[in-house]
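pls ignore typos typing on phone
iron/sulfur cluster + seq
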Amino acid sequence: MSGLRVLAGPELTSGAESFADHTQRLGTPQSTGRALVETLVRSGLTGRGGASFPVGLKWRSVIAAKGSPVVIANGAEGEPQSHKDRLLMTTRPHLVLDGAFIAARTVHARQVVLYIGEEHKAGWSAMARALDERPEGERRIARIVGAPHRYVAGDSSAAVHLIDGGVATPTTTPPSTHERGLDGAPTLVQNVETLAHIALIARYGDAWYGSAGRRGAAGTVLITMAGGVNHPGVLEVEAGTTVEEAVAMAGGVTEPTSAVLIGGYFGAWVQAAKAWELPLDIASLQARGLSLGCGVVGLLPAARCGVCDTSRIMGYLATESSAQCGPCFFGLRALSDACSRIAERGANRDDLARLKKWAIEVPGRGACKHPDGAVMFLRSALSTFADEFAVHPAHWRQQPA
Ligand SMILES: Cc1cc2nc3c(=O)[nH]c(=O)nc-3n(C[C@H](O)[C@H](O)[C@H](O)COP(=O)(O)O)c2cc1C
Ligand code: SF4
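k done
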């Protein structure tokens, strides 16, 4: 594990940085208000929770919306392979809090909610202790709310429902939460990594932000290296760092690799030969039809079966939907069943044809992006493992996650 900017500072193994040490190391943020919003727009910072929405534009619309805004710091981190948000909350809680309170001051929010995954015990307690260290005026408007251990609980509309006293299930957008969220008020939901970058941009500006980055990209990104690398875990890399360079930083591969999952379970499989040169940068990946998502880079060793791994992940995503809409309740379940029939009983033309047909029909029809993310992942598997899907033998060996 290493840090350049948001993870810079004391050894990560020594736990949470105190408020006194944090303030001594970084000073207090200089910029809030309209000037900061325009700085964020110029920086090009995009959200790190998965959807990569431009931060400055979201802040502009929260400020323009009617009502008294609320800020939600999203530390749900429901993605099973991702560890970046919990690491950040555990080691640099004040950077996240700085970002949340800067956001609150800038959009004139009356309330800050720290929405933290209930299973992230270390991150939760570090954030709670850090909140206790903050000035009274900040403590008074902030509270921590637990995010249930469900994949969809991290969706911004699910967070709003839970915090409003309901159940953490997503609902249709528009209106987006930044137009109409908690109690109908404009609600700025921002991932905790995004908030940490904001805390530094408010101190050092957009030119400083852009002074890191490779191959024309700006800033740094947190990525979680998973699967067949010698040192799995979280790395902070310059945006534009290639997969090959990130793998080298993670100690190299443990064994030959057949494919790389870029962006986590809402991301895409890419054949290893094509993956190495990919720049880990939101815009560069989007230009190739890919997504950085939550920053997971997962290496599939050649000895493992891509069809079996795909079937396992599709089963997880089907189970984790909130089962309210047809595309999830019927579509994802049917896709997952067809995948597991191929994985368990062997390839068959009918299921393969069904997968290809349904992968076109399911997206764009759910209340949230859950089915779209799952189908993007499945389509990438059908193309990356096309040969394996066509000839998969009738065996099923449950592979560990
Ligand atoms: C099914 C689903 C799960 C999500 N889970 C998370 C999550 O665990 N953490 C997160 O920050 N964003 C998650 N998101 C994205 C949020 O809805 C939202 O876009 C994000 O928190 C906004 O912050 P950002 O712009 O800083 O990324 C999820 C979205 C969907 C559709
Ligand atoms: S699309 Fe799926 S996960 Fe999203 S609200 Fe509907 S059933 Fe739930």
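The mean pLDDT is 95. DSSP finds 17 helices and nine strands in the chain. more later
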